[in-house]
Amino acid sequence: MKIFCGRANPTTGSMEWLEEGEDYDYHQEIARSRYADMLHDKDRNVKYYQGIRAAVSRVKERGEKAIVLDIGTGTGLLSMMAASAGADFCYAIEVFKPMANAAVKIVEKNGFSDKIKVINKHSTEVTVGPDGDMQCRANILVTELFDTELIGEGALPTYEHAHKYLVQEGCEAVPHRATVYVQLVESRRMWSWKKLFPIHVEAEDGEKFLVAPSEMENCPGLPSVCDIQLNQMPASDFSTLSDVVTMFSVDFSKPVQSASTYYRVQLEAVKSGKAQIVLSWWDIDMDPSGMINCTMAPYWVNPTSALQWRDHWMQCVYFLPREEPVVQGERLCLTACRDQYSVWYSLHRA
Questions:
Q1: Which CATH architecture has domain 179-349?
Q2: Where is each Protein arginine N-methyltransferase domain found (predicted)?
């Protein structure tokens, strides 16, 4: 038996599926996964359930059967939410065989075997038709394919394929949309994660400083994201140089394009300093109205004592290729480039 196991590519940031032999101890993959963290994320689960119930209701109000496609079902939780919300049938896709087997047992234990079919395939291999994995295209698309960077687990190509081959045009999607936010900051602590600062040493002939070679100092490095708990970062460790702005959004209810592209936004420096870091996070609207919202915003943006602690979704630190001095009131242009799996930033004067 061959097993597919997820591996994060350290260069691209993408989640890649590798084939392992039948003697591979796949239990370590489950032990190292974040299934437990996701399952205990009450805010996530409540918002998903509210969004799924609303989507099923909208489909039923149109006089249609509610056929759900759940990509990346994991334990089958979201499919069971859909079934309990009144969905007529759910197709639950899970590529990781040990987890797919667990989902089958969990679905059966909870009495949903007649409403949920677990498909142990990658979604791009699923077929639709009388003799296919799915009898018909779904009219509700439910997914949880997101990482801290939003797209690092291949959400964009997965959505692109699903809209082409697995769901109806104009389907309901839960979540309905995702929005990525950014803020420009100066932070010696975070900048030190990218740059080597001069090191002070005591020598026999006096004090000396060890300085990195100019080639290393001028090298921008790989544009890899650093995901951290910004809620654990003291306010004294960074200085915000811009307001929070929307960088881009993705509407999951419409065909999604995964081809590489870029986005630009205009910023105004609210304080003078050295632009070094782009902080980023996202939120997801579970319904078209945006009333059911799940946000990753840090404490200074969303000041509430009811912040949900989670490790499976955090916030992003992006290092600019080089630090740029900015002056309060100066107009700036921030560019975000992305491919299918990762995002990187550059800053220019407007």
A1: Distorted Sandwich (2.70)
A2: 176-336
